[in-house]
Amino acid sequence: MNLRVIVAAALLTSAMSVPALAQQAAAPTGSPAATVTIPGNQLPPPPLPFGGVIKENAKDSKPWWPPTVVPRKGAPNVLLIMTDDSGFGVPSTFGGVIPTPALDRIAKAGLRYTQFHSTALCSPTRAALITGRNHHSVGFGQISEFATGYPGYNSIIGPENATIGRVLSDNGYATSWFGKNHNTPAFQYSAAGPFDQWPSGMGFQYFYGFMGGESDQWTPYLFRNHSPIYPWLGRKDYNLVTDMADEAIKYMKELNASAPEKPFLVYYVPGATHDPHQPTKEWIDKISRMRLFDDGWEKLRERIFANQKRLGVIPANTQLTPWPDSLPRWDSLSEVKKKIVTRQADVFAAFTAYNDHEIGRVIQAVEDMGKLDNTLIIYINGDNGTSSEGSMMGTPNWLTVANGMLELPEAEYLRYYESWGSAETYPHMAVPWAWAFDTPFKWTKQIASHFGGTRQGMAISWPRHINDVGGIRNQFHHMIDIVPTILDAAGIKAPDMVDGIKQKPIEGVSMAYTFDKANANAPSKRTTQYFEMFANRGIYHEGWYAATTPPEPPWLVGTKPLPPVEQYKWELYNITEDFSQANDLAAKQPEKLKEMQALFMAEAAKYQVLPLDNSVLPRLLTPRPSGTAGRNEFTYTGENLDIPIGNAPSLLNRNFTITANITIPEGGAEGMIVTMGGRFVGYGLYVQKGKPVFVYNLLNLKRYRWEGGVGAEDWLGSSLKPGKHTIVFDFKYDGPGLGKGGTGVLSVDGKMLSEQKMEHTIPFMMAIDESFDVGADTRTPVDESYTLPFRFTGTIDKLTIKTGPEQLAEPDRKAMQDAVKKASD
């Protein structure tokens, strides 16, 4: 063997285990089949020098191949699963009434964890899950849409925080991500990138999923790696939940066929049961026949609570926390309202059961490939508690709530009763259901101070490594503990350096010690954990828990003013004796409370939690880097599709003018010129039957339509003639203030065709899972009078959108100015 090869191999394997050395010896060094297990402290490892011989001609030379990096022998495959917006009391595995046989399967084959925690909100939880560090430590103190210019809140997972995808990838794993990606900054979704914050840039070699916090399941905002895709076009049977499972199974089969010995990390996060709740009709019918919710939300809590005690997932002395006075009692509802909200719960439950069924298909595929025995499966129920963001009566269109409309006429619910969950709706359920699904705890998603927002049921299986099959574990753990658990199982160390950048230490602890039956009741290795979201705070330490009392509930979506963060009331619990946080000891033990409050501040300073901020509107209005920053004129030519909302011109709360210079060919033309949004909110300028049309969709409650050819000049006739034309839609806003009305004028070639006044406009959010499209329409139409993709059959020579300044009322303006000042301090 060449001396340089021997020296290089010795250096590279100095920190290797015996199995790794044996694995390297399986093929001669320098051969195409040679493999090596790296120490892993530096990623990627330094390249080895060429170990062959190079002479003047090939017959006197000797080729040499660098060895393929592989993990240690026996390193497991990893299937990391997490659902969305699902509290502790949702799945049957943890006492819920909704059947979740796939989660049951993992629990019966492995362990159930009853004190496992999230951050109370989706993308912060996901950032913690994939990095092994606290959410503020990696810039995700909240979702990206509320990012501010502070290290703990900028929604940027920096290069000093390599993810589990990157670490495993560089150690020889095939890494993939299926489902929801809410960890790319919202201002970086476009084709302009950069892509270092996309899954590919975070070490996941393959991505199939949607961008942002949520997506319509029938027409999702879907990507394969960096490219938008539309697999539902021309299909009536499409649903993202099934498609996601199909794609994951296909990927694993292809990987197994190509490289059966290569271990995989499949990060499977389908996005259900976040709104919109959109299961298939088959599942809605199946769950509805079970009549799970006829007795109402209080009785549901009692049933779940009894089930939890029977299963042993809560201690026998646990108290069911009281029903809050702020929520209606079931008996106070009319029969019509009971019918409406029962339908909502049926659809949510159907979404849960359907999602678990498809997850079960993915798990079964692992078994069918013969890989189940060496696959570590981690199945986390929910990235936070059940969502109460659907308003007190629920909504057929969550965009109404997002725009501050918390009540709808009863007729609006009845209009969509039969179609609830279908493509005609973008639904969410009533708040009291969310509270019930978080049994036995208080509060819901967004509330980081209480376990209703943060306690997640979790099951882990790993055949032949977990020797207490079907066991229950009560140790206190957190999302940040998953990465070190995976690394521990794989025999891979967390790197010190990645791409030459010093890494922040992993802040989680491995849970692998709980796998052994002898350690079933071992003390938790997580002794301290802070919680914070929108200034609701909590701190756990050695069995004690202190928390602030939320001053206002999350279902008011920031519409009520909040007190200064230093004026929040605090509570104190001994959770070794009080599992559900039912007995507040703050008044009885003030010194202990002070001790815990001081500990919270120490942890907050350590993990980038400061400054504390409970604002909602100011964060929403905070300027962020984007393609629109500082611009008030936007120009496009030809077809431009899938421009994300963060890179599109905002038409909210301001004057705007859309000018389209187009060419109509012989024979006429029709199709979309420009659109944002779709069926549930948005606008579109298009040509239909030869006539120019502008539609403004006000939350699917009312559509304003300006149309040419009606009252038009005789020269126009009933359609645009072949040749060049200029279509203009000019809107004057009735500001200042949010969501005010205005007057729009549609004209062609300087001739006014239609003038109309709107009483209201969209104040906050024009789209979530829709894009800004020029020359066609993707996903859903703003008006049901056309079908997708409604491609413009003429030529868009030039499209110009000019926007005026936001016309905010003085309180709104002050909030924005405060946000700007805070972001720049």
Automatic annotation (TrEMBL):
Keywords: Calcium, Hydrolase, Metal-binding, Signal. Residues 810-825 have a biased composition (Basic and acidic residues). It holds the Pfam family Sulfatase. PROSITE patterns: SULFATASE_1. It comes from the Bacteria. Residues 1-22 form the signal peptide. Residues 76-492 form the Sulfatase N-terminal domain. Residues 804-825 are annotated as: Disordered. SUPFAM superfamilies: Alkaline phosphatase-like. Belongs to the sulfatase family. This is Arylsulfatase A-like enzyme. It comes from Bradyrhizobium yuanmingense.
